[in-house]
Every structure is written in structure tokens, then in C-alpha cells.
Design brief:
- This protein has 125 residues and is an all-beta fold.
- It has one domain: Rieske Iron-sulfur Protein (3-layer Sandwich), CATH 2.102.10.10.
- It contains no helices and 12 strands.
- The strands form 4 sheets. Strands 2-3-4-10 form a 4-stranded antiparallel β-sheet, with no helix packed on it.
- Strand 5 and strand 6 form a beta hairpin.
- The model has no long low-confidence stretch (mean pLDDT 96).
- Bound molecules: FE2/S2 (inorganic) cluster.
- FE2/S2 (inorganic) cluster binds next to loops.
């Protein structure tokens, strides 16, 4: 398990300088993830229909540095939205990025905004 490359840094909502238009809401799967590209970064975007909430994190799983989190299963653990990596089931909070079932380094998480039918992911660069 490895720390993620430096381009993956959590962005707090108040730090956003660029709301990147990721696509129309109907281009994203319901209750699952999709992957977008932002420069050299792959970002996984998730829609939780029951809560009508969107989340984004790096697609890169810090366990083996595989770009797979967008294909992970999503769910909740004690009210915390999470994604489970499809490879070895490491689970990450989609609000803080922390690994909820082990000692993996955290993933970077990004704010998501939905406006006029489009999904925007917040970056600080
Ligand atoms: S690559 Fe092993 S849990 Fe993600």
C-alpha cells in the first residue's frame, strides 16, 4: 500500500477555485460510480439516489495504485457514504477519504455541485 501521488489532494468546498463541468446528471449511473478526467487526474463520481447526494474521490485506490474506485460498490457505514474498492474491498469514506476498514492512506475527496442538470466537481487548481 502506497501514498497517492501528489496531484491527489482533498479539496474543501471553500477552497474551490474551478468548478469543472463533469457532464449532465443523466450521463452518470444511479447508485454507482463513473470516472471523469481532469488534467492527468482520474476522478470517480458517485450518485446516491436515496439521499440525492453526489460525491467524488480520486479513482486511484491507494492500496495497489489501481484506477478502479469508480467501479466500486457504494453504500453507507454508520451514516457515512463509502465506496468499496472492487479489487480487495478496502473501503473509503466519501466525505473524509479515510480508509474505514484498515490502515490504507486516505483518498482525496472533492466537492460536487449540481446546477441546471449538470454535475460540477470542485478543484483548487
Ligand atoms: S487495489 Fe486493493 S483494495 Fe483497492
Amino acid at each position: 500500500m502506497t501514498t497517492s501521488p501528489p496531484q491527489y489532494q482533498t479539496v474543501q468546498p471553500e477552497a474551490v477555485t474551478n468548478w469543472y463541468k463533469a457532464g449532465r446528471t443523466d450521463q452518470f449511473p444511479v447508485g454507482a460510480g463513473a470516472t471523469i478526467k481532469y488534467g492527468d487526474r482520474q476522478i470517480a463520481v458517485f450518485y446516491f439516489p436515496r439521499q440525492d447526494k453526489w460525491y467524488a474521490c480520486q479513482n486511484l485506490c491507494p492500496h495497489k495504485l489501481e484506477n478502479v474506485l469508480g467501479r466500486g460498490l457504494i453504500g453507507e457505514q454508520e451514516g457515512i457514504p463509502k465506496v468499496a474498492c472492487p479489487l480487495h474491498k478496502k473501503t473509503f469514506s466519501l466525505t473524509t477519504g479515510e480508509n474505514l476498514n484498515g490502515d490504507c492512506p486516505p483518498v482525496a475527496v472533492y466537492p460536487v455541485d449540481v446546477k441546471d442538470g449538470y454535475v460540477y466537481v470542485g478543484f483548487a487548481d
